[in-house]
């Protein structure tokens, strides 16, 4: 039946959502291009049907006199159901797209310029890549505006310690931060101010102890 | 015979100390003359805390309806915390606290500069930063800044105040960051609804009041790019009658409104100025306690909200009380 394909898409969306729930930095699964294309094909088909139905209705109206009341009702019903099918498909497609949209948003907030985004860009549709880029720009603009003093994309866990111990997870050589230079040698430990290394923890170089 | 002289004593107390009741007494409270002169100078409604020449902190005053309210940094932080909590718990987007945020932002900037200046004082031995300054210059700089800085200068090894200031500023920044992020996520969620508000002329509250300038811009731009995405990937292929993104006629309403009936925890704090008698919506119940009485329209049930107690209540019911600051969400 019509709408079954869309149902499949929604199940996919649900799975993505659950996947996202479990791990923090869940990857966005591949964009279901084929399925979506099929649904859109179905919509085009339905659209043709409605056009056909409309034509028929006009014909019926033209040949007056006959007792076509029954036929007219049947046509109306058919037209309405087709419309509902299309609406259903639209809803499913939008829901799927919106979910991906939201995930892209959170991705853009969590690490706006790290490598994960490039890794994933194969899985995104062309439009999504464009969207992600534009949204990234929007965030950058927002951060450099009035609220520049507050690093908006910074950590959302309240700062409980001023100084923390961190362990270096990845060799990164000498890294320049705003506040000074660190020599990140693998498996070394530092006792540093939290605000200095927050960025590096987010990017996965350091681990908080 | 007992003569009650409480009120006379209260009058006496007010005279000598001139302390606002809501504030604990400490050096941040200016004397009365100081306040008025400052008001005249500052033309009120100006940004927050300044350090005057004596190094004493002055609190600015804000004129609301001709009565002066003292705004100390402490009080505005309290207000910020309330705003933050309310925003996090409320289902709808609350109006943006324009004045408060302006004050907080300028204060953060000042404090950050201040910390920077103090920590410069610590770099006494490090001449790389200061090669063009003579030591006298540096000392003068510190003295001009603030007496605290000089005190710190004479006593380098005590870094505790500096540490506290930094920790403090981190905390304030966290609260503001969390506040704004929370609002932004709500803006994303109610994007279409807010747009509808904007187009609707009969609306009582304007969008400029709900959102700040940055948020307005964010809303606009994010709406446009997500609309573009949805248009290109889905809506383009739909028949013309189904191409609208904000369709309210269909079987499902596409504009998501805030869930007005969401249950929220509230703490009834009473009128913001603490004056129970003046509040006309307050009544006393049979136990002689002050309470607000509200009605839940669907159940046709009246509820008494006694002051200083906690309830779980529908948001719609307490919305007006929340706007007036008489209850807080927790």
From TrEMBL, chain A:
Biological processes, Gene Ontology terms: DNA strand elongation involved in mitotic DNA replication; double-strand break repair via break-induced replication; mitotic DNA replication initiation
Which residue ranges does the record assign to the DNA replication complex GINS protein PSF1 C-terminal domain? 161-208
Taxonomy of origin reads: Eukaryota, Fungi, Dikarya, Ascomycota, Saccharomycotina
Family named by the database record: Belongs to the GINS1/PSF1 family.
The entry's function note states: Required for correct functioning of the GINS complex, a complex that plays an essential role in the initiation of DNA replication, and progression of DNA replication forks. GINS complex seems to bind preferentially to single-stranded DNA.
Q: Which Pfam families does the entry link to?
A: PSF1_C (PF24997), Sld5 (PF05916)
Question: Can you tell which superkingdom this protein's organism belongs to?
Answer: Eukaryota
The record's subunit annotation is: Component of the GINS complex.
Q: Where in the cell is it found?
A: Nucleus
- Coiled-coil segments: 36-73
Residue ranges annotated for the GINS subunit domain, each copy included: 57-144
- Give the UniProt entry's GO cellular component terms: CMG complex; GINS complex; nuclear replication fork
Q: What is its main location?
A: nucleus
Q: Write out the entry's keywords from A to Z.
A: Coiled coil, DNA replication, Nucleus
Checking InterPro entries in the record gives:
GINS_A, GINS_bundle-like_dom_sf, GINS_Psf1, PSF1_C
Kindly provide the name given to this protein in its UniProt entry: DNA replication complex GINS protein PSF1
From TrEMBL, chain B:
- Name where it's found: Nucleus
Report the leader peptide range.
none
Q: Where is the composition biased (Polar residues)?
A: 31-53
GO biological process terms on file = DNA-templated DNA replication; double-strand break repair via break-induced replication
What InterPro entries does this protein map onto? GINS_A, GINS_bundle-like_dom_sf, GINS_Sld5, SLD5_C, Sld5_GINS_A
The superkingdom listed in its UniProt entry is Eukaryota
Per UniProt, the ranges with Basic and acidic residues bias are: 18-29
Query: Could you tell me which SUPFAM superfamilies the record lists for this protein?
Result: GINS helical bundle-like, PriA/YqbF domain
Which terms in the GO cellular component ontology are assigned? CMG complex; GINS complex; nuclear replication fork
Region feature (Disordered): 18-53
> Keyword set for this entry?
DNA replication, Nucleus
Specify the DNA replication complex GINS protein SLD5 C-terminal domain's residue ranges: 258-330
Residues annotated as domain GINS subunit: 136-232
Entry's family note: Belongs to the GINS4/SLD5 family.
Q: Which PANTHER family match?
A: DNA REPLICATION COMPLEX GINS PROTEIN SLD5, SLD5 PROTEIN
UniProt protein name:
DNA replication complex GINS protein SLD5
- Organism of provenance: Naumovozyma dairenensis (strain ATCC 10597 / BCRC 20456 / CBS 421 / NBRC 0211 / NRRL Y-12639)
Q: Which gene encodes it?
A: NDAI0A07080
């Amino acid at each position: 039946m019509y709408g079954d394909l869309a149902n499949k898409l929604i199940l996919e969306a649900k799975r993505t959502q659950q996947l996202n729930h479990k791990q923090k930095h869940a990857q966005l699964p591949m964009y279901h291009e084929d399925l979506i294309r099929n649904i859109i094909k179905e919509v085009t088909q339905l659209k043709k049907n409605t056009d056909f139905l409309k034509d028929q209705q006009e014909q019926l109206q033209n040949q007056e006199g006959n007792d076509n009341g029954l036929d007219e009702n049947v046509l109306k019903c058919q037209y309405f159901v087709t419309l509902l099918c299309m609406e259903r498909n639209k809803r499913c497609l939008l829901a799927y797209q919106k979910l991906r949209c939201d995930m892209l948003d959170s991705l853009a907030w969590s690490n706006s310029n790290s490598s994960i985004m490039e890794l994933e860009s194969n899985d995104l549709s062309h439009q999504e890549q464009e969207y992600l880029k534009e949204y990234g720009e929007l965030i950058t603009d927002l951060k450099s505006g009035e609220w520049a003093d507050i690093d908006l994309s910074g950590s959302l866990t309240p700062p409980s310690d001023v100084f923390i111990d961190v362990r270096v997870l990845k060799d990164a050589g000498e890294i320049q931060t705003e506040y000074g230079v660190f020599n990140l040698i693998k498996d070394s430990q530092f006792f540093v101010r939290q605000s200095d290394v927050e960025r590096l923890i987010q990017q996965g170089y350091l681990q908080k102890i | 015979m007992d003569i009650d002289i409480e009120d006379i004593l209260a009058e006496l107390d007010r005279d000598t100390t001139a302390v606002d009741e809501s504030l604990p007494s400490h050096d941040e409270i200016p004397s009365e003359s100081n306040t008025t002169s400052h008001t005249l100078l500052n033309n009120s409604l100006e940004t927050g805390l300044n350090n005057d020449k004596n190094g004493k902190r002055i609190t600015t005053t804000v004129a609301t309806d001709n009565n002066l309210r003292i705004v100390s940094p402490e009080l505005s932080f309290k207000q910020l915390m309330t705003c933050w909590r309310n925003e996090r718990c409320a289902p709808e987007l609350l109006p943006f606290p324009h004045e408060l945020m302006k004050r907080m932002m300028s204060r953060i900037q000042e404090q950050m500069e201040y910390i920077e200046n103090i920590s410069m004082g610590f770099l006494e031995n490090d001449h790389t930063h200061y090669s063009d300054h003579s030591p006298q210059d540096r000392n003068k700089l510190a003295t001009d800044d603030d007496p605290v800085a000089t005190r710190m200068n004479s006593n380098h090894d005590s870094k505790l105040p500096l540490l506290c200031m930094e920790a403090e500023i981190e905390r304030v920044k966290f609260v503001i960051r969390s506040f704004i992020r929370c609002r932004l996520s709500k803006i994303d969620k109610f994007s279409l609804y807010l747009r509808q508000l904007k187009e609707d002329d009969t609306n009582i509250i304007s969008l400029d009041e709900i959102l700040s300038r940055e948020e307005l811009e964010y809303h606009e731009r994010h709406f446009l790019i997500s609309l573009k995405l949805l248009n290109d990937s889905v809506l383009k292929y739909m028949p013309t009658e189904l191409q609208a993104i904000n369709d309210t006629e269909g079987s499902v309403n596409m504009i998501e409104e805030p869930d007005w009936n969401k249950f929220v925890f509230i703490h009834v704090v009473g009128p913001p100025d603490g004056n129970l008698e003046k509040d006309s919506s307050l009544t006393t119940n049979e136990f002689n306690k002050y309470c607000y009485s509200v009605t839940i329209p669907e159940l046709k049930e009246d509820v008494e909200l006694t002051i200083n107690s906690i309830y779980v209540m529908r948001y719609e019911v307490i919305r007006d009380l929340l706007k007036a600051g008489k209850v807080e969400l927790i």
